[in-house]
């Protein structure tokens, strides 16, 4: 064995001995994880005066039932209106423009403001004149719009 191999062997031997020392020592560096089993709980704990058969009622969060109609609706984020592509850019609302990838509410408002002040978009060159729309963004937008 040459000198570097001896150093590696001594280091490995030291780490092995340290591992054994930690394993057999009474000091526990890693806290134990407590386990819980549902079978440990008696079934009588689930029973109460309102529910003597032991069934547990679970209320689903996010669902709401209308008392008058019986319809169930989900309380989640508002869904966006369905937008069919391509969008007629000269008649599009801000919500429809926001459905285009890369167009947020501010850019949609800028596009509508430009359209109302300068007239209808006649082509891609007019679209590039809107503040915030460069060559790359215009190329992305052009795949989703038509000029009518």
UniProtKB/TrEMBL annotation:
Gene3D superfamilies: AF1531-like domain
Pfam families: HHH_3
Biological process per Gene Ontology, one example term: DNA repair
Annotated Helix-hairpin-helix DNA-binding motif class domain residues: 95-114, 125-144
Family annotation (SMART domains): HhH1 (SM00278)
One MF term in the entry's GO annotations: DNA binding
PANTHER family, per the entry: ENDONUCLEASE/EXONUCLEASE/PHOSPHATASE FAMILY DOMAIN-CONTAINING PROTEIN 1 (PTHR21180), ENDONUCLEASE_EXONUCLEASE_PHOSPHATASE FAMILY DOMAIN-CONTAINING PROTEIN 1 (PTHR21180:SF32)
Cross-referenced NCBIfam families: competence protein ComEA helix-hairpin-helix repeat region (TIGR00426)
Name of the featured protein: Competence protein ComEA
Organism: Hallerella succinigenes
């Amino acid at each position: 064995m040459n000198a570097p191999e001896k150093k590696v062997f001594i280091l490995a031997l030291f780490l092995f001995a340290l591992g054994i020392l930690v394993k057999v020592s009474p000091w526990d560096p890693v806290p134990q994880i407590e386990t819980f089993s549902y079978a440990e709980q008696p079934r009588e704990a689930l029973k109460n005066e309102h529910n003597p058969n032991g069934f547990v009622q679970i209320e689903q969060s996010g669902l709401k039932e209308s008392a008058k109609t019986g319809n169930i609706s989900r309380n989640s984020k508002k869904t966006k209106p369905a937008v069919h592509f391509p969008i007629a850019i000269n008649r599009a609302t801000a919500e429809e423009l926001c459905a285009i990838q890369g167009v947020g509410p501010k850019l949609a408002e800028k596009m509508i403001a430009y359209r109302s002040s300068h007239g209808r978009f006649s082509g891609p060159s007019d679209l590039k004149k809107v503040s915030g729309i460069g060559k790359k963004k215009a190329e992305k937008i052009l795949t989703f719009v038509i000029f009518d």
